[in-house]
Amino acid sequence: MNLTHREADLIFSIMRELTGEFSHAEVRKRVGRWLLDLLDADYFASYLWNEASGAFVSGVYINMTEANLAGYEAYYQYRDPITPTLQRRRMATPVSEIMAHERLRRTEFFNDFLYRDGLFYGLNYFAYDRGENIGDMRIWRARGKEDFSRRDAALVDAIGPSFVNALVRANRLSEATPVQRFVQFSRDWGLTAREGEVADMLVTGLSDEDICTVLCISKPTLRSHIGAVFRKVGVQRRGQLGHVLTTRNHHF
Predict the structure, then answer these.
(1) How far apart are CA 74 and CA 81, in angstroms?
(2) What is the pLDDT of residues 176-209, one digit of tens each?
(3) What is the DSSP letter of 40?
(4) What is the rounded CA–CA span in Å between residue 131 and residue 138?
(5) Are residues 89 and 52 in the same domain?
(6) What is the DSSP string of 85-106?
(7) Cα angle at 183 between 30 and 191, to 5 degrees?
(8) Is 215 exposed, middle or buried (0-12, 13-18, 19+ CB in 10 A)?
């Protein structure tokens, strides 16, 4: 494939960026920003597949609303006519290759979820390590732009190995220092998936600004999540959350 100078520069920049040591969520968020530029796209989302629950969790996203993504996580992912097929692919795939766009536009998934945030044409990539789906990239363009092409998919495939290696490295870094996490036991306290993620970030000492950046949420939304976490877990300060985790086994 012949690359333009701009495409080559962006692809090599992505590859260089992915050699760094980042958390799993940060890897996905960073590559998302680059891909929107490379593909002239407008929206990005990425999830982890949880085999035990049969659901996508730990979402990060760019230019999408939290309320709409909450609807996806709670309802629309279980009525998704495209992702199960795309997930089985080991290469980047335009959504229209597995379902004609006109047919997709007649679905509840499109009208009540995708189009609510302006998503129109999609391209997905699912990363695999030894047969396990370890993360994905979901890139979308707005109405008025062209659908993704096989050439666009080839550009994503070009950075696919670097993306997989970065996710594997992030997982190994996490496993090297295993800790209990609120997201693992969110049901014990009645936390939502997002509240569990917020609680874990508070335990690690991330600032409010950093949490908002990683999760793509506003400060008022973050304060609402923190209030819910404190109320459900039964603490008054973020410094108490770590102690709650270490003493969890005495309570459950």
Answers:
(1) 16
(2) 544 567 877 778 899 998 888 888 888 777 788 8
(3) T
(4) 20
(5) yes
(6) HHHT-SS-EEGGGTS-HHHHTT
(7) 120
(8) buried
Let me know whether 137 and 191 are in one domain: no
Give how many domains the chain has, as a whole number.
2
Q: Is the pTM of this model over 0.85?
A: no
Cβ–Cβ < 8 Å for 24, 167:
yes
What are the tokens at 230? 């404190």
Q: What is the domain-level CATH number for residue 200?
A: 1.10.10.10
Counting residues of the chain whose pLDDT is more than 90, the rounded percentage is: 67
How far apart CA 73 and CA 194 sit, in angstroms, is 10
The whole domain housing 229 covers: 182-250
Domain end call among 176, 211, 234: 176
Same structural domain, 137 and 206: no
Instruction: List the strands of the sheet with 55-62, edge to edge.
Output: 55-62, 43-50, 132-142, 119-129, 93-94
* Residue finishing a domain among 176, 192, 226: 176
Answer yes or no: is pLDDT of 250 > 70.
no
